[in-house]
C-alpha cells in the first residue's frame, strides 16, 4: 500500500462570505463521497474568525489527491470558490496519516 497523504489548510473568505465558502466546501465533501481514494474531507469553522474555513483531508496517496483536481465537477466548485476567497493558505500543512478512526489499517 502506498503512503497515505493528508492536507490541513485555512482559507479566508472575503468579509461576510465565510458561510458561502463553507457551503461550497461542503458541496466538495458531498461530491467526494463517491471517490474511494478520499478517506476524509472535513470542513471546519474557526472560532472567533467568521470568515476562516479550515479543510482537513486524507487520501490514499498524493497522486489520488492530484487526480481529484482534474475532475470537472471539482474544478467547477473551485471556480465558484475562488472569487470568495480573500486569502489562500500561506502554508497548507502536508501530512502523512499513520492511523486512526476512519483510516485503513
Could you explain how this protein is built, in words?
The protein has helices at residues 18-32, 62-68, 72-81; strands at 5-13, 38-46, 49-59, 85-87, 93-95. With 105 residues, the chain is α+β, with helices and mostly antiparallel strands. It has a single domain, classed as Alpha-Beta Plaits. Strands 1, 2, 3, 4 and 5 form a 5-stranded antiparallel β-sheet that branches. A hairpin with a 2-residue loop joins strand 2 and strand 3. The termini are close together.
Average per-residue pLDDT, rounded, comes to: 92
CATH architecture: 2-Layer Sandwich
Number of helices: 3
What's the β-strand tally?
5
Q: Level of helix content?
A: 25-40%
Major sheet details: 5 strands, antiparallel
In CATH's first tier, which class applies? Alpha Beta
Amino acid at each position: 500500500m502506498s503512503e497515505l497523504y493528508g492536507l490541513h489548510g485555512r482559507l479566508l473568505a472575503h468579509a461576510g462570505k465565510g458561510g458561502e465558502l463553507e457551503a461550497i466546501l461542503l458541496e466538495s465533501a458531498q461530491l467526494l463521497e463517491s471517490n474511494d481514494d478520499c478517506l476524509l474531507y472535513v470542513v471546519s469553522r474557526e472560532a472567533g474568525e467568521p470568515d476562516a474555513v479550515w479543510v482537513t483531508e486524507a487520501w490514499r496517496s498524493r497522486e489520488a489527491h492530484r487526480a481529484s483536481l482534474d475532475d470537472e465537477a471539482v474544478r467547477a466548485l473551485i471556480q465558484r470558490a475562488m472569487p470568495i476567497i480573500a486569502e489562500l493558505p500561506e502554508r497548507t500543512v502536508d501530512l502523512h496519516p499513520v492511523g486512526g478512526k476512519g483510516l485503513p489499517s
